[in-house]
Amino acid sequence: MKRRVRAFSMVWLAVFALTLLIPPFQALAQDDNDGYGIQVTAKADGDSIAVDAEVTGQEKKPVALNGDWSITLLGPEGNEVDSVTDQVTFDKGTVTFSHGFKGLKPGEYQVKAEFKGSVRAEGDVADSPKQKPYTLEVASDRITIEQPDVDDPEPTEPETIGIDVSVEAVKGKPTSILKAEASLKTDATEVEGDWNFTAIYQEDNTKPSDDVKVKGGNKASADLTVVSTGVYVVHVTFDGTADGKKVKGEGSYEVTLPKGGGGKDPVNYEMIASHGFLIQGYDDGGIEDIAASIKADLMAGEENVTPKAKGTWTFEVPELGLKKSGKESRAAFSILHEGLDPGHEYTVHIAFDGKVGKKKVKQETDYQLAIPGMKSGYDYNGGKNTVTAELTLAENAEGSWVTAVYDEDIELVDYKETTGVKGLKHSADFQDLEPGKYQAVTIFDGEIDGSELVVWKEVSFEVKKNGGAPLPGNEKPCVGDPKTGKKIVEDIKGGKMPKTAVDHPSWMLCGGVIATAGLLILGIVYRRKWLGLFGV
Fold it and tell me: Signal peptide: which range, if any (predicted)?
């Protein structure tokens, strides 16, 4: 009995000793990470959780990592819902990792962040023995995704769809009938709602009869009673549902009730427009004008009746107060002299007032005129100075890209050239730049949406010992002529300064750039000295 009691006591004594020894060993295991750890924050927003993790140090501040991150999202039952990994290297110069988990169901979640790899702290030398591998991990507090409030859903606006309308005028005495038919432009199979038919007498803009209201599906018809001969517009609206969704629509049809015989539908005219770019130059190669040429056509169904149209065409750019009228169905607006900015879209109001054959016609439309432009930028990443450029207000482009970098002393530092490129974006990397201020210019020479153009833009930046940053500036993109640009390159190589002819003051800068476009092979001038060089 005494032996049994003694043995039992020894067991409890051993357990007690272990409780005293384990915490120091735990602390020792934690100290094996040299005081490095992970700080993680997780925030819920709707059905998403945003996670930010950062490696921190108790004694030294981490500045770079080399290893693997992982962030795991745990569900309400501790099960893994989703995870993401990322590999980092010292040259990225980051100690953080962020990720967002989206489309989560309501409930409680927890985030586990882990980093396995080496840590470089302030003052550490590259490949220092201190940069041994660590395994760091931490779990966040519980995060709750709330159940969305569905008791009071916000009302949604009905979807707008078109309505096809046709009208037959049936003449009678003393009254006549406008027989109207309408159908929704939809593929929905279950449609129901309220139709409304209205007749408007064009001569005095009055309603000769009451509206006709009809309940129905995707088609409806109505007879509208009228008295006077002349032109009527039948306006049709619909308000209801299509396959369970709220919809609304409207459509109109113009019909003539003649003095004798039955009704006759008028010809429906439509105006369409397109644009291109005109380049006009002097004999010596200087640019006289670059203009956007807008062409309008009057259509009767599929027939182009513009050659038969006699009257006045008006082209107006309200934003710039520009207006041109004449007998021609086309007009040109100068980019160089009338203030149209590259990289900007203008609304051009086009109107025709005249006759097609013996019929009087008034037609108008708004056309969006897009002038191609360019946006450029600068980024520093891992010792590389990256100059980026993207053509704007363009859909397709193919041609050559040249990017040149200059220092403050108007000296060419480096240039990159790429030919036969399809697409709107381009980037060029420049390494081993000494600390200082630089200016880069990127030029595209090729075809943009079917037009041969040159577009370029500049960006200024400063390189520091351990990085770089763009400098403030608001230079506008410029548009030039590829033929003139090629001649300028030849002149520059021959030691001559080519002439330019740009009269509009706001385009003097671009005129200077056009004159020196060839320098994209030889160099570009730092802005202040560049402008002074050309007397701007």
Answer: 1-29
